[in-house]
Amino acid sequence: MFTLRVLTLLLLLLLLALSARLPRSAADPGDELCLTRLSESLQDPGSRLSNWSKAAFAEPCNGFTSSLSGATCNNGRIYKLSLSGLGLRGSIPANLANCTSLQALDLSANALTGPIPPDLQGLVNLAVLNLSSNRLSGQIPLQLALCAYLNVIDLHSNLLSGPIPQQLGLLVRLSAFDVSNNRLEGQIPGSLSNRTGNLPRFNASSFEGNKGLYGYPLAPMKTKGLSVLAIVGIGLGSGLASLVLSFTGVCIWLRVTERKMSMEEVSGTFWIFR
Q1: Where is the signal peptide (predicted)?
Q2: Beta carbons within 10 angstroms of residue 93's beta carbon
Q3: Residue 193 — very low, low, confident or very high, per pLDDT cuts 50/70/90?
Q4: 81, 95, 137, 249: least CB-packed within 10 angstroms?
């Protein structure tokens, strides 16, 4: 019995030694391309991503850990990218969609510009998308509705314009949605503002700060131009002015007529005396 235990222990030690000497598996080609293109599209003035190199992209994961700053792995695949508040500049590359196992993407609080690529629809496992507090422009891509597992979409404090895609309301798992402080316009889709009991699906704070955006749950827009009271006042003023002018005209006509009749009487009297 003792000999069997010793042999089992020795066998386990041998297997561990052999596994330690085996090279780590190469990166998934999609992850490698994704990381390479993302690195090329970003500017890192603070050198916060100094260990992002081509060599590291070839082997970014070792099981559940990663040597790359801001990256987390799961079973050898990039699972999460958290690059918030690093002072990064540049744009979001379309090839980011090649990280098909990505479940959380946080690029918030940087200085990124350009559009949100519609290609992000390829992130079919994405649950959290946070691109807030950047300088992203263009429209919100309706293709995000194809990321069926999205729980969080945070795009506040950018320069996004155009309408909110109605298709986003079809994301049944969506529990947090914020597009405040952009340049969005049009009516808030009913699928994002429907009431659940006495409460909206998302409250007004999710939509505030967009001058052209209207509809529930935002407060009614103020009437552009003159108010109703101002219009009534102008109407009354105009009517009064017309009345005064008419009265003045009548008075002048009566005065002129009276003077004319007086002159005619004087003239008739003069001819009688002659």
Answers
A1: 1-19
A2: 20
A3: confident
A4: 249
Q: Choose the final residue of a domain: 169, 195, 214.
A: 214
DSSP codes, 68-135: STTEEEETTEEEEEE-TTS--EE---GGGGG-TT--EEE--SSEEEEPPPGGGGG-TT--EEE--SSE
**Phi and psi based region of residue 196 (left: phi greater than 0; alpha: psi -120 to 50; beta: remaining):** beta
* 140 and 227 assigned to the same domain: no
**Of 191, 214, 237, at which residue does a domain stop?**
214
Bridging pattern class, strands 89-90 and 42-43:
antiparallel
Q: Structural domain of residue 75, as residue ranges?
A: 22-214
Single out the residue of 244, 188, 245 nearest to residue 212, CA to CA.
Answer: 188
- Percent of the chain whose pLDDT exceeds 90: 64
pLDDT at residue 230 tops 70: no
The answer to whether position 9 is within a domain reads: no
Helical segments of the chain, H only: 2-21, 29-41, 54-58, 190-193, 228-273
Q: Please state the separation of Cα 7 from the chain's center in Å.
A: 63
CATH number at residue 120: 3.80.10.10
